[in-house]
Amino acid sequence: MTFDLASARVVVTGGAGFLGSHLCDALLAEGAEVVCVDNLLTGSPDNIAHLAQHDRFRFVDQDVTRHLAVDGPVDAVLHFASPASPIDYLELPIQTLKVGSLGTHNTLGLAKEKGARFMLASTSEVYGDPKVHPQPETYWGNVNPIGPRGVYDEAKRFAEALAFAYHRTHGVPIRVPRIFNTFGPRMRMDDGRAVPTFIRQAMAGEPLTVHGDGTQTRSLCYVDDLIAGFLALLRAEMTGPVNLGGSDEVTMLELTDAVIAAVGSGSTVTFAPRPVDDPQVRRPDTTIAERELGWSAAVPLAEGLARTVAWYRSR
Ligand code: NAD
After folding, report:
1. What range does the domain containing 166 cover?
2. pLDDT tens for each residue of 12-55
3. SS3 77
4. Which one of the listed residues 89, 152, 166, 222 is annotated catalytic?
């Protein structure tokens, strides 16, 4: 039986965040009814202000680490609530662990109670500083549980384990995308992630701060591509985990060049120490997404950066 989004009622936790708000937009465009649950810890009401009057959208200001009750039928629970940028989760370590553990428990409980599909926003960080490159879903990862980043990586690893336990024990239909670095409009300019930081610095004509020697790599995905992947996975009959991410791997130095070109800035580059346990390389093996979902990232880096810069300029 196909999953009909047009008649679905969907709970999105973290819906006032960067990815969550784009997801709410896409679900509403498909005809779904959306209940957005967010405590605005790292998100912003600005991201969903345009939806305030939408008759199929409701915002609930709630911490999902506390008991979560939603009236009426629910067809899917999409758990996207979590601090996601290193600046945020290093500042909010306990909240990050709680939303990955208690928050995942509560949202899985809601899905079980309602007979709903459950999607967990997992992450490439479950692979840690990878010893296998590119990373296939079968790779178990190389994570330091007690390092500063462990609060995020281990919360997501626990969340995956809990989702699979609910699937095996209670038959909850789960969907687990492992999301690689994604960028686009609505990222906070001060969230510390590379793309918004470089864009802010390039727009201000300041030097772009590269950590280490800039040879470390990331594979960036434009937000619209990622959201299309979520909808495909939600409709598909597969649990995952499935990698969703861009396959164009760039070094941080190449990224600074691309951002400087997109902004048309005369900025230079300056170097700062690497954060503890910062991964050296990152690229998804997207074979499963291509084969099972017919999905791959389509928007080239330069195009995604141009759209993102245009959005920051419009504000
Ligand atoms: P974000 O910080 O913009 O959004 C997260 C949202 O969760 C925010 O609106 C925040 O207020 C909310 N939130 C946090 N704790 C909460 C709680 N206890 N109760 C209710 N709401 C809470 O981050 P994002 O980039 O949009 O990330 C969304 C999800 O995707 C996260 O789970 C993140 O781990 C995952 N993810 C994102 C990326 C990426 O590149 N953006 C990569 C991998 C995984």
Report:
1. 5-183+221-245+283-298
2. 999 999 999 999 999 999 999 999 999 999 999 999 999 999 99
3. strand
4. 152
pLDDT tier at 313 (50, 70, 90 boundaries)?
very high
39 is a domain residue = yes
In a domain, residue 63? The reply is yes
DSSP state of 241: -
Specify the CATH number for the domain of residue 54: 3.40.50.720
Mutation to probe ligand 1, out of 36, 80, 182, 183 (largest number of atoms < 8 A from CB): 80
| 152 is an active site residue | yes
Least Cα distance to 105 among 126, 120, 125 occurs for: 120
User: For 188-238, how does the pLDDT look when each residue is reduced to its tens digit (9 = 90+)?
Assistant: 999 989 999 999 999 999 999 999 999 999 999 999 999 999 999 999 999
Listed in sequence order, the residues at least 6 apart from 146 whose beta carbon sits closer than 8 Å to its beta carbon are none
**Contact present, 116 and 76 (Cβ < 8 Å):** yes
β-bridge pairing 177-179 and 76-79: unpaired
3-state secondary structure of 266: coil
pLDDT tens across 253-273, in order? 999 999 999 999 999 999 999
What number is the average pLDDT over the span 92-121?
A: 98
> Cα–Cα distance between 305 and 275 in angstroms, integer?
24
What's 138's DSSP letter?
Answer: T
In contact, 118 and 134? CB cutoff 8 Å: no
What's the pLDDT tens digit per position in 113-158?
999 999 999 999 999 999 999 999 999 999 999 999 999 999 999 9
Structurally, how many domains does the chain consist of? 1
Atom 1 in ligand 1: which residue has the minimum CA distance? 17
Q: Per the domain annotation, does 261 fall within a domain?
A: no
Helix or strand (DSSP H, E) at 270? strand 269-272
Helix (H, G, I), strand (E, B) or coil at 56: coil
